[in-house]
Amino acid sequence: MKHTLYDKIWADHCIHENEDKSSLIYIDRHLIHEVTSPQAFDGLDIKKRDIWNKQSIMATTDHNVPTINRDKGITDPVSKIQVETLRDNCKKHNIELYDLDNIKQGIVHVIGPELGMTQPGMTLVCGDSHTSTHGALASLAFGIGTSDVEHVLATQCLNLTKDKNFKIHVNGKLKPFVTSKDLILYIIGKIGTSGGTGFTIEYAGEAITDLSIESRMTMCNMTIEAGAKSGLMAFDKTTHDYLKDREFLPSKKHYDNALKYWESLVSDESAHFDRTEVFDANDVEPQVTWGTSPEMVTPVDSKIPTPDTVTNEEEYIDTLKYMGLEPGVEINSISLDKIFIGSCTNSRIEDLRDASQVVKGEKVSSSIKQAIVVPGSGLVKAQAEAEGLDKVFIDAGFEWRDPGCSMCLGMNDDFLQPYERCASTSNRNFQGRQGDKGRTHLVSPAMAAVAGIKGHFYNVKEFMNEK
Predict the structure, then answer these.
(1) Domain boundary at 251, 275, 299, which?
(2) pLDDT range class, residue 410, cuts 50, 70, 90
């Protein structure tokens, strides 16, 4: 039989198939942070259970941490308790923790791959929905709830029902200054936020294999916004080149065997997919979301849809009211209050390079209240500073921050005030996501950078040509 990549990884980790069609699946890597782990550790204590495999666990602080003035500590009492609780639990159970004083600290979905903790063929979980990010390295990665976090800590297994296979094939090449963020937003706009429900999505085609691993991570990160549990991409030379020499890779003694296995992590030719969609990369333009769901997206040179083009008029009216927008408004005319470049979607060195290329020699518009750049990890921050990117941003008027989730989710000191409008490189634009009554527009790092310079949305392709 021919097997998909998803089928292969599932079969390699299936311990037992149950009569109800669910399966007991072994978990290779468990990533934890301060938000979803405290209750899980409490559950272990109450039931007097030990952790099954401490070596499989990596912990970091990211959601609640400050991105400035870290020497003053965490001021918010709830955030402080959550971070201190993670510290206590890691110390108690002798778990590796990358805390604020460690250069390896950062967003969990950034540091896992960059340290080589994420490896092809692994099953990888975290109490965070955007764990799908790690699928860019041919691993089966997905978010889990608090009770499942406890279950993995105690047993290293999960009882799961297998998803169906969904292949998204993207032909051709992306245009200059059109990024993987634009591509995934475009795809979500086409299939909807429920298009991937019940599926694990594998991305394939020339446009996908042309992407760097960092760009692939952006695609897999936002697969969850298409309703799928996981996103996957096959192992190839690009994957190997990214991984080689990472800290936690197999030792030389085992590396050749590992590589041989990794090279098998591709879908067999003619393998069956339950659903297939084909897109053309040439159709993709720089994207901007206009509503309160990632599927509410349109090219930057377009307009907000009119009532006659939508299927749910009531939702459409409520969305525009929340966003403070009108039907038919040109996207380029939408003025902004804040700019956020960061998050587990777009805070890697490639993202910062793209944005710095745009802002070099420019100045943030006087109409912008705040523009911040938040590297995804201490290692990303150090590399960016070694390349002088921090100076480019600071000279342009951006704030250069320490690593963390920051303004992605309004769970720390970085958030929108009511009715403030933000160009954000994060992954969700739900009501209140970045702060109470905050208005979020999802864009690529380059598009966010241009918006910061112009004070409103503008096509990065035109901007760079003019520049």
Answers:
(1) 275
(2) confident
Note the pLDDT tens digit of each residue in 74-117: 999 999 999 999 999 999 999 999 999 999 999 999 999 999 99
Evaluate whether residue 281 is within a structural domain. no
Residue 280 lies in a domain: no
Residue type, 145: G
- Whole-model pTM? 0.97
Contact 175, 299 (CB under 8 A): no
> What is the total count of domains within the chain?
2
Q: Which of 255, 275, 295 is the last residue of a domain?
A: 275
Of 101, 90, 100, the closest CA to residue 62 belongs to 100
Domain that holds residue 321: 286-466
For the domain that residue 265 is a member of, what is the CATH number?
3.30.499.10
Residue 139 φ/ψ, nearest 5 degrees: -115, 155
Pick from 416, 158, 425, 179: nearest CA to 289: 425
CA angle (138, 141, 142) in 5-degree steps: 155
CB atoms within 10 A of CB 20: 8
- Short-list 151, 125, 160, CA closest to 39: 151
396 burial (CB, 10 Å; 0-12 / 13-18 / 19+) is buried
